[in-house]
Structure formats: C-alpha cells, structure tokens
Amino acid sequence: MYVIGKQWMWHVQHANGKRENNELHVPIGQPVRLIMTSQDVIHSFYIPAFRIKQDVLPGRYTSLWFEATKPGEYHLFCAEYCGTEHSLMIGTVIVMSLNEYQAWLTTPGDVIMPDGSIQAGQVLLNPNTSGPQLGPSLSDPMAVAGEQLFTSLGCAGCHVEAGGGTGPSLRNVFGYTQTLADGSTVLADENYIRTSILTSMKQIVQGYQPVMPVYEGQISDDQLNQLLAYIVSISNRGGNAPASVPVAEPQPSPAPTSVPAPPSAGGPFDADLATKGEQLFNNLGCVACHQDSGLGLGPRLRGLYNRQVALADGSSITADAAYLQESILNSAAKVVKDYNPIMPVYQGQLKDDEVRQLVEYIKSLTE
Amino acid sequence: MSTSAIPQNYTSTRADSATEWIKSWLLTVDHKRIAILYLLSINFFFLLGGLAASLVRVELVTPQGDLMTADMYNRMFTLHGVIMVFFFLIPAIPAVMGNFLVPLMIGARDLAFPRLNLLSWYLYMGGGVFALVAAITGGVDTGWTFYTPFSSSYSNSNVILTMSGAFIMGFSSILTGLNFIVTIHKMRAPGMTWFRLPLFIWANYATSLIQILATPVLGIALLLVMVERVWRVGIFDPALGGDPLLFQHLFWFYSHPAVYIMILPAMGVISELISAFSRKRIFGYEFIAFSSIAIAVLGFLVWGHHMFVSSQSVYSGLVFSFITMLVAIPSAIKVFNWTATLYKGSISYRTPMLYALGFIGLFIIGGLTGIFLGVVAVDIHVTDTYFVVAHFHYVMVGGTIMAYLGGIHYWWPKMTGRMYNEAWGAISALVVFVGFNMTFFPQFVMGYLGMPRRYHVYPEEFQIYHVLSTAGASILGLGFIIPIIYLTLSLFVGKVAGPNPWAATGLEWSIASPPPTHNFDQTPVVTEEAYAYPEDAAAQDSDSWQAGSHL
Amino acid sequence: MATTSHEHGHNPALQHHFDTPEQQREAATLGMWAFLTTEIMLFGGIFMAYAVYRWAYHEVWALAATHLNTPLAAINTVVLLVSSLTVALGVHAAASGKQRQVVLLLLVTILLGAAFLGIKVTEYSEKFAHCAGYANPITWISGGATLEEAECLVPGQQFHFPVGHGAEEASSLPNIQRNAQLFYLLYFCATGLHAIHMIVGISIMAVLAWMAARGRFSSEYYTPVEIGGLYWHLIDIIWVFLFPLFYLV
User: Fold this and answer.
1) Region B168-179: what's the mean pLDDT?
2) What is the CATH number of the domain that holds B131?
3) For labelling alongside B351, which of A233, B206, B359, C29 has CA 20 to 30 A away?
4) Are strands A23-27 and A91-96 parallel, antiparallel or unpaired?
C-alpha cells in the first residue's frame, strides 16, 4: 500500500485504488508492505502496537512491512516533529479479517483516477487486459491505472515493450540489477524507478541515449505510485511489490479503449523497406505521438493508407504515398482535422530512402 | 555577619565608586571571578529553561490543548531544549566549576589565556542575548534539533536568530575548551604529573577535546541552514535538490559528542565527591582517567544511533549500534570504580554525597536505557517517544544536574568562604531526588506504550502518566529553588568555612577560602599521589568524629 | 587585579600567571595549534557538503566549475604561497632579533594578502557584473559592453547558469540550474569564509608589524609573531585545498 505523509495527515492508497485518510485498513495474517513518501517535511509513520516505525522523507520512498495478527483498532502516530499540528497527525489502524477487508475494499469510497483527480463514491474496477499475465496481477487496479498513465503520458512511445525503442523495455526491469552507462550496476527497486521517472539523467541505462524528458514537477506522487505499480506488475520479480489482495469476484470489464477503425483500402507494400521503416518509426519517436491506441497527440496510422482523410480546413483527401511523404516532411501543409499542428518538420532531417522506408511501413499497417 | 573572619580574597575590590566596582567584575581576567559571572548567568538561563519546562508540563496535564495553542506549545518545548542544551548543560560544569577549579587543582595562578576566558563569557552572553531576543520576539518552533527541511524551508519562526545564538555560544565553548587544554598541558605545578592530577582535571581535559573538535561542525551545520533559509538554495531541502539526511549527519556529529561534554565533567565531579566523602583514594584511578578519554574518542563514532529510523542503511545502523555498546563500557567502568571506592570507606552522608549517590543510581538507569536505545530493534519502537525523553533526562538531570548541585555544595565553602545550611541541603537533595524520579520514571512507561514526543495533545490513555509526571515536576522545581534561597542566605549568615572544611585532599583545599586573587602564595610542589588519604583514614575519622564536624 | 608584590626581574612581556617565558611561549603555541584544529573542523563541514553533492551531481559540478576564473585563482595561489614564505622568513627574522626585517617582511605579507583579496574582489565583482548584464566590472561602472548571453552565477532569485555555449549535454542535464546554483553557493560560502579569515589574518599581521616597529619583540620574546605566522599558514593551507577542489574539478 502506498502512504503519503503531509502536514498534517496521512493518505493511504490501497492496491485497488481505494484511498483513505488517517486510517489504515489491513487484513489479518497477510504481510502488508507500505511504500511511503512525504510531500513536505520529514514525518515518521509509527504504529506502537506493531512495534514499527519508519521516517517518511520528501523526495524518496521508504518502506515498512508487517503482518497483523490480532483484530482490533490501534493507534497510528506521526513520530517526527513536523510543525504546528504534529500532535494531530494521528490515525487508526483497523485490522480485520480477510473477508471483511475485501468487502471494505469494494465499498465505494474516495478513489484516485488515472488522471490524478480524486473521485468520491467510486471503486476502481479490474478490466481484463490482453497480453501475458505476469507478476502479481495486471488486473491490479493501481497497475491498470498506471498502465493508462503510461500510455497517456507518452511513456509507451519510447519504452516499447517488445524492445528496440528509444528507451529500454520495462518488462522484467523491477527487481533486476541494471547496468548503467558508466558501467556501475544498481538494483531496480522502488527508489530507482522513482528517480528514473523524475530525473532520468541520474542513471542512464547502458546502451541508451539520455533523451528521456524530466518529469519532476509534472506528475503527482499519486500518479508516480500508479506508474510504479504498473512497472512492478510487468516484472516477474514483482512479487515483492505491494501486495495486491485478490478481489472476491471478477468485475465486469469496461468497453475497450481503442477507437474502432473505419474500413481501409490498404495496398501493396515493400516488406523489407517496411521493416526498416518500423525501426525508424520507433527510433525517431514517431510512435510517441502516433500511438496505435489512437489516444496520442497525432492520429492513428494503422489503416490510414489510401483512406479518405478529413483535413483541418474542411477538405478531404486520399492518403496516398505522396500524401504520406508530404505529411512526414512538412506536416503543416495538411493537418488532419481535430489535431493540432505540432508535428515537427522533418524536411532536411531525413534522407530520401529513409522517407521511403517510413512510407512503406505506414502502408504495412493494416487492421 | 563576621566578615572579618573572611580574609582578603578574589572578591574584594578596592573600588572608589560603583562603576569602578562593576568594571572590576565585568572586565576581570581572574578565572575565579569569571566563574562567578558564569554561575550567575547560567543560573538565570536555567531558570528560564525551567520556566518553559513548567509551562510544557502544565499543558500536558490534560490531553487537550487547553492552556496554549499548538504553535505556542511548539515554541515552548523548543525554547526549553535550546536553552537547556546550549545555555545550561554544555557550559555549566566546565564554565563554573572548571573555570574556578582547574588552575587551583593543578597549582597554577590562572588559566593559560585569561583574556580569552573573559571573551568566552562575553560570547556566551552574546549568544544568550540572541536566544532571548528570538524567544521574546516570537520564539522558534523547530525543536532544538532543527531538522530540515522543516527548519530550512517551512518554519516561519525565528530560526536564524536562534541559530545565531547557538552559533555564538559555540565559540564560547570552543575557547573554554582551548583554554583548558593548554592550561592542563603547560601549567601544572612542579611534581604534578599527569597521573597525579585530580580526576576532575582528566574529565575536563577530555571534555575540552570534544569541545574543540565537535563544536565547529555544529557551527557549519547551522550556518548552512541559515544560508539555505536566506538564499533558498538546495542544501538540505529535497524540493530544491538537497539532502535532508545530510543535515542530520552534520547535526548529530556534534550533538552526540555534545552529550559527552555534558556528562564527562559531571563524572569528574562525582569522582571528587565519592573520594572525599568516603575518605578513600579513588579505586582504579588510571581506569577512570583513561575511560574519560575513551568516552571522548568513542563518542565521536556513534552519532548514527540518533538516525536508526531515518532511512539510513540498516548496515550503518548495525555498525553504529555496535559502537554504541562499546561506548557504554568506559562509563560502566567508572560506575564500578566508584562503588568500589565506597566499599570500606568512611562514608559521610552530607549534601554533596547525597547528590553523588543519587547520581550513581540515576546515571545507571539513564545509561542502561541508553543501551536499550542503542539496540536497533528496540529503538525502532521507542525512538521519538517519551522513552527517549526519559532516558536523556535521567542522564542530563539525574546525572549532570545532580553532579552540578553536588559540586556547587562541595566547593561552595571554597568559592564563598561560607558553609551552607546542611539540613536544608539534605532536604532539598531528597526533594530533588524524589521529584525527579516522579517526573521522569512514568515517561519511560508511557514512551514504551507509544506516547510520541513533542505532542501538544495526546490520547486519553496516557493522561495518568502525564499527571504523575507534572506532579513530580512541581516537586523537582521546588527542589531546585530551595538551594537558591539557602545558598544566597549563606553568603550573609553562613558559618565561616576555613580553608578545608571537608578535610579533603587536593591543592584547592590548601589555600584560604575564598582564595586570594593570585591563588598560591608560593607555587606548590606536588609530592603525593591524588586522593592521598591515609590508609586508615576510615578508622581514624570514626574515632575522631565529633558532633558539629562538617563531615 | 590585586597582586602581591614581587620583583620585576623578568621580561616585561611575561604574564604573571606564567612562571617562565618558555612556559608562556609553549602555552601560546599549543593554544594556537588547538585553535587551528577547530578551524579545520569548521571548513571540514563545508568540504563534507561539497563532497556529498559532488558525488551526487558530478557532471553539473564539472560544468559549473568551467565558469570560474581559474587563471585569477591560480595567481592567487601563488600570491598566498609567497606570502607564507615571507611570513616564515619574518618569524625567522624575529627569532634572530632583526626587528627591521620583521617589520619589512610582515608589511610584504600584508601587501600580498591585500593583493589576494584584491584579486578575489575582482573575481567576485566579475560575477556580480555579469549578473547585472555587463561583460566586466569596468563596463558595469562606465556603462559599456554588455554580455551576449544572460548569466548570473550569484546564488539567489536571479541565478541563471548559461547553457547556450558548451556541450549540448548541458541543456539535457536535469536540474542543471538548481545544482549549478548549489555549486556556486558552496563556492561563495567556502571562498567567502576563507576571505573573512584572510581579513582577520591581515589585521593580525598589521598589529604584529606595529608591535615589531615599537620594538616589542626580541629574540627571547617573539611568540606573537610565531603564532600569527601559524594562523597565516593555516589560511594558506585551506586555500591550497579550496583551489583544486573548486577550480580544478
């Protein structure tokens, strides 16, 4: 579970997204791991009855684990002087049976959504996702929220899961030793993931360029926790991650998020060039905006070739090879309707055969 | 009032006017007068710190915050800590008793640098003025430990003023230590070899080593926090790229040795008292001397035991824990040596001895609970609770303050030429002992039960302990005030003491009470070991004891 | 201070609480050595902070240091080393009882110390001038050439580390502004504290020169010169550590 201490209260975030303030509901007989950080000054998370205490620092994660053995309510104190209302930064730890805990988890309450907002009266549900099931659970709602963030913030553009992207694949990263650019090795624990998200330059992985944007100040601690949960969930060493308690019944899955594609005309393409084009598409970062999910800053390119495209000026055009080439080199000429004219200009940056490879790749993207 | 029986001494001044008399005291370079200046100013700060403590304890009688606001409470306990640590405990025994006695005990006419000594006092007063101004203009609410980033980025109180006060006081401490080191090295009387020195001198020597090496680090730590507050640069604040743990390391690197600055001179006093009031040579002289140095050295290696839960690595925690166990050994050696000194001694239960015996018992409790705290697993539960508060009050009040009071009473006749009223002395020693235990023992219990420190309001289940504690505090306060009264009265109506009312050994007892300004008419030549009581002193004394004897 | 009467057959510089001049000299020397140890502990704290942040942010440290005026500081190093030489010669002259030489050497030392401070002032004012937008202090006063690229290396609200020129990596280093500001803060703190000690040192030298001119010293009694020299040597040694750590990163 995630704990955020701030002047002068405790926020707790359970694996399924349920939030509570100044209270900590835990099940009996299950090891519970707390991953904690502070939003301002040093606090200290103290449960006298459990004989545990750990300082909670701004700018890093600290952690605690325990296994409650007796039901009841226990004191939770802040044990590091933190300002005016330090004495009021107290709460209750409620230990309940596993069934009661699961029931509690699924009662509506405050929930943090993937976009960072807090909604009352909600329960984050477990959708079924495609892809291999690894680690504790890709159906862990925090991990699902993290996965959504991973996409919406554009991480997926560089951190291609299959590898070969601008950034390393994050599958099986958490819990493994990473080799950094300077030759040193480091264990990819929670703090490593956190630092890499916020200020990646500190530890660039060997073989990769230091081009990852800096996210410090851009995302909240809650969103960080969700991303962390996701990255943990796609590692088969994620077993040490905050325990996600299996929820009693499976929940109905929401509607799929991808935009249904209109029927496409398609056409023949050169497979060799397309393969090279795919590499370019990833290395140049095109994939970051032109996401297959359709949720990126640029339009989805699958099934685009030879389809009718509505432009911003109201006109319509067939997306033939010439259109694709022009859009790559000088996109401002014809911006697609409902999209912003922010695509970089690649005229003069790409060689002719590189452009050809990209066009062949886009042609190869069929539904 | 029989002033004619008291010879011309260091307090006499040939002054024609009041201003001349004041100048003769405020511009003195006589170590004895400077000691008296310190005595008066230190007592003033002690009373101020005690007032703050009283307000804290009264507030804590009820679980709700009904006496003062949370903000006021936070400033109150910070004031108590800052004043007591920096303006009472650190200077007390070295500046009062050390200044007065070090030259006397080694047979010198003054300290090595008398003018520096006066400067030390002025620096102490200057720092005190800063702290007072800070307190009066709103106080500071960071706790005496000033943890960042709260103190460097979040607190709206007089952090810089208070830190400046502590910074300036630090220089006073450094100069006093410097003075003692040079004096002890270079100004011993002929025949006064290192192993003939009284153990009080060994204790002050070890203390001075700590003072000169540790205090500058505090200076830098405070300076950097002040810089961060003013220029908003990230030294300790993670939001600005700094490291909050760096402050804790710099701070505790000084503040742990600081507690040995507080206890080592106290142990030195106890060695003197135990020996004098058992009429016996101290047992294991060399062991006690070397233990003082060992405590000073080891004390520099254990600062991390204040940071077991701070997110420092568990491996460094284990190393600090191990060394903390080691630092207990020399302290224990001293305690065993004192009790061995008592064995078959001719024990006289006068006020100084009452304080000394109280010290031994209370220091054992305080020291042992320190060992409990040094075990990482236990510390995780009790750190930042009242258990720690009880521990350090046992060593600082039950230890240092008891020794301070014992020393004041023992050397009172030497400093003033008068004896205090023994009955009142014994009564107040008992009142202090009872009040002290009643105040702080319940705090061990409630700390173990989970009551955190620096809490303004608390859960009801802890109230009974707080009530007991406050009741004890009122008794303790009484016990501290009574001596002020009878000691002051003794200046006017006390019995004239003579040079050696306790029939004790030591060069300070070989001269008049109070001593003349130049201390020794002739430079003494030392031929005997320290504490050279005759072998059969015990038997002799019980044969010759008469009612009315001071012993 | 009431004193009993005694003969003044001793050197008037012998203070009454000492038995012999040797004892007084030894005490003074030991006292100065003890004091120097405290100074080392003081600067040690700053060096510790420097070490921690250099380890944490080593690229920014290297980059930030390139904007320091190393040639000027190198000259300062030579100046200080020479001044330590003149001080040592002065102590030697005092031991030989050559009063005139003592005064001369101490005056040269003061001059060198003043030169050090002067160069330091130049260095600092160059930084301040850049903050004000001018190329150097002279144009700042006379209103001449301005800086092409905004640069302000004095810590505070207006701090701005120029990332335009230099390697492209500069702009990609995270928190470069924040960490460069930390470097400059430690630089100003360390060199500023050192400069304050220099001012104290020069004052001490001035007092010593005046005392020597008044004939207060002799080959039997020249302790103040000796311990003043010790202090000067400490200031020099601290600079010898500061210079490579900050300028030659």
Assistant:
1) 96
2) 1.20.210.10
3) B206
4) parallel
Q: Name the more confident of B403 and B1.
A: B403
Largest Cα–Cα distance of chain C, in whole Å? Answer: 80
Identify the H or E element spanning A55: strand A52-56
Residue B435 lies in a domain: yes
The predicted pLDDT at position C20 comes to 87
B233 touches chain C (CB under 8 A): yes
Using an 8 Å CB-CB cutoff, list chain B residues near A75.
450, 459
The yes-or-no verdict on residue A243 having pLDDT over 50 is: no
**Interior CA angle at B58 toward B52 and B64, to 5°?**
120
State how many domains chain B has.
1
Query: DSSP letters along A335-347, please?
Result: PBTTS-S-PPP-T
Domains and CATH numbers, chain A: 2-119 (2.60.40.420), 141-240 (1.10.760.10), 271-364 (1.10.760.10)
Mean pLDDT for the stretch of residues B267-284: 94
Positive or negative torsion for Cα C27, C29, C30, C34: positive
Q: How many of the other CB atoms lie within 10 Å of CB of A6? A: 18
Domains of chain C: 21-54+65-129+183-247 (1.20.120.80)
Residue B548: inside a domain, yes or no? no
- The DSSP 8-state label assigned to residue B458 in this structure reads -
Amino acid code (one letter) for B407: G
Give the largest Cα separation in chain A, rounded.
72
End-to-end CA distance of chain A: 40
- CB spacing of B150 vs A48 below 8 angstroms: no
- Mutation for testing the B interface, residue in C22, C25, C36, C41 having most B CBs under 10 Å: C41
Question: SS3 of A89, please?
Answer: coil
Nearest alpha-carbon partner for C80 in C247, C249, C248, C239: C239
Which amino acid, one-letter code, is at B431?
Answer: V
Q: Is residue B450 included in any domain, yes or no?
A: yes
Q: Tell me what the pLDDT averaged over chain C comes to.
A: 86
pLDDT band at B545 (very low <50, low <70, confident <90, very high): low
Nearest to C129 by CA among C103, C109, C150: C150
Strands A31-38 and A23-27: unpaired
- For chain C, the 3-state helix, strand and coil shares in percent, each to the nearest 5, are 70, 0, 25
Q: Report yes or no: A188 and A195 within 8 Å, Cβ to Cβ.
A: no
Residue-wise pLDDT for B362-413, tens only, equals: 999 999 999 999 999 999 999 999 999 999 999 999 999 999 999 999 999 9
Helix (H, G, I), strand (E, B) or coil at A184: coil
Nearest-angstrom CA–CA distance, A302 and A286: 13
Give the residue, C78 or A21, on which the prediction is more confident.
C78
The answer to whether residue C166 scores a pLDDT higher than 50 is no
Predicted confidence (pLDDT) at residue C171 exceeds the cutoff of 70: no
Q: Do C175 and A211 touch (CB under 8 A)?
A: no
Report the pLDDT value the prediction gives residue C13, as an integer from 0 to 100: 74
C18 closest CA partner among B526, B193, B111, B35 = B111
Residue-wise pLDDT for A256-271, tens only, equals: 333 333 444 567 777 7
Q: Quick one: pLDDT at residue B5?
A: 64
Pick the residue of B118, B168, B171, B182 with the most C CBs within 10 A to test the interface with C by mutation.
B182
Residue B99 lies in domain: 25-533
β-bridge pairing A109-112 and A91-96: unpaired
Asked if the Cβ–Cβ distance from B70 to A75 is below 8 Å, we say no
CA A197 – CA B279 distance, rounded (Å): 72
Q: Is B425 part of any domain?
A: yes
CA distance B135 to B150: 19
For residues B94 and B179, the answer to whether their CB atoms sit within 8 Å is no
Which residue from C151, B453, C152 is spatially nearest to A82, judged by alpha carbons? B453
* Mean pLDDT comparison of A15-24, B454-463, C170-179, highest-scoring range: B454-463
